[in-house]
């Protein structure tokens, strides 16, 4: 594949290195603050962006204008950003996920099944851990898990607890831990009477997200316009 990468940071660099190691071609790496040469660059087969929401504007314009599929993994999006992605998907195929790990896709599926069985008799808590440079909290993956755990909106969401909080209500507690070089860990706990169930996904490094993004790109090329996610990739 010929790949244009959004962003020049750690993830962008890792995407480039992994893509080249797998015999793909990287046509360029672009950031919003310097788009010189973008219009004269060879049109790629796909654009992959894991950088920052500030790049979404030019990326959405570029892929729409040039009819290029977009693999998008940036988190911390506003509702307006999501509207931009959905609008873009009316013209080109867009693969969006808060986490491109195959294991996390399975985690989401397992949690969905467990919630149906346990939500009325077990308390639910969500803990996520990431490296000390991560800017958004909770993580995008945690937000996706919350949507799964509270799909009908019947629980209050409590972000951490402090002080005299009283007895637990019908709520889901969310806890964000930041430190070190942790690539990402997400744990969902179901706490019942005299027993509990814990489901955890641990990412040893960011390479799993890049590998997933490249798989998504291969899947997306040739697809019709629309919004795609990890459910499409795992079947």
Contiguous low-pLDDT stretches (5 residues minimum) are none
Q: Helicity, in percent? A: 25-40%
SSE sequence, one letter per element: EHEEHEHEHEHEEEEHEH
Number of domains: 2
Oligomer: single chain
Return the CATH architecture of the largest domain: 3-Layer(aba) Sandwich
CATH fold name of the largest domain? Rossmann fold
Mean pLDDT value: 94
- In spatial order, strands of the major sheet run 2-1-3-4-5-11
Number of helices: 7
For the sheet with most strands, the description reads:
6 strands, parallel
Write structural notes for this entry.
- The protein is an alpha/beta fold.
- The protein has two domains: 2-100 and 207-234, 3-Layer(aba) Sandwich (Rossmann fold); 102-203, 2-Layer Sandwich (Dihydrodipicolinate Reductase, domain 2).
- The protein is 34% helix and 26% strand.
- The chain contains seven helices and eleven strands.
- It has helices at 10-21, 56-66, 79-88, 102-118, 140-149, 207-220, 230-234, and strands spanning 2-6, 25-30, 46-49, 70-72, 93-96, 123-130, 156-159, 171-178, 184-191, 196-203, 226-228.
- A hairpin with a 4-residue loop joins strand 9 (184-191) and strand 10 (196-203).
- The longest helix is centred in the middle third of the chain and has 17 residues, at 102-118.
- It is elongated, with a radius of gyration of 19 Å.
Layout of helices and strands:
Layout: E1 2-6, H1 10-21, E2 25-30, E3 46-49, H2 56-66, E4 70-72, H3 79-88, E5 93-96, H4 102-118, E6 123-130, H5 140-149, E7 156-159, E8 171-178, E9 184-191, E10 196-203, H6 207-220, E11 226-228, H7 230-234
Parallel strand pairs: 1-2, 1-3, 3-4, 4-5, 5-11, 6-8, 7-8
Antiparallel strand pairs: 6-9, 9-10
Helix pairs in contact: 1-6, 2-3, 4-5
């Amino acid at each position: 594949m010929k790949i244009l990468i959004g962003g020049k940071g750690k993830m962008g660099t890792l995407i480039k290195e992994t893509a080249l190691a797998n015999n793909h071609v990287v046509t360029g790496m672009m950031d919003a603050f310097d788009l010189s040469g973008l219009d004269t660059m060879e049109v790629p087969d796909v654009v992959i962006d894991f950088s920052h929401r500030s790049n979404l504007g030019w990326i959405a314009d570029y892929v729409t204008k040039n009819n290029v599929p977009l693999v998008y993994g940036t988190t911390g999006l506003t509702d307006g950003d999501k509207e931009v992605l959905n609008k873009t998907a009316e013209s080109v195929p867009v693969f969006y996920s808060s986490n491109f790990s195959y294991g996390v896709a399975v985690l989401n599926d397992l949690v969905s099944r467990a919630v149906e069985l346990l939500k009325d008799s077990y308390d639910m808590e969500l803990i996520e851990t990431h490296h000390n440079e991560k800017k958004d909290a909770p993580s995008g993956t945690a937000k996706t898990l919350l949507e799964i755990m509270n799909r009908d909106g019947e629980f209050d969401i409590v972000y951490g607890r402090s002080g005299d909080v009283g007895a637990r209500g019908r709520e889901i507690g969310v806890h964000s831990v930041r430190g070190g070089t942790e690539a990402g860990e997400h744990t969902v706990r179901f706490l019942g009477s005299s027993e509990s169930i814990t489901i955890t996904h641990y990412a040893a490094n960011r390479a799993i997200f890049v590998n997933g993004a490249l798989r998504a790109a291969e899947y997306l090329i040739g697809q019709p316009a629309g919004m795609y996610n990890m459910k499409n990739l795992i079947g």
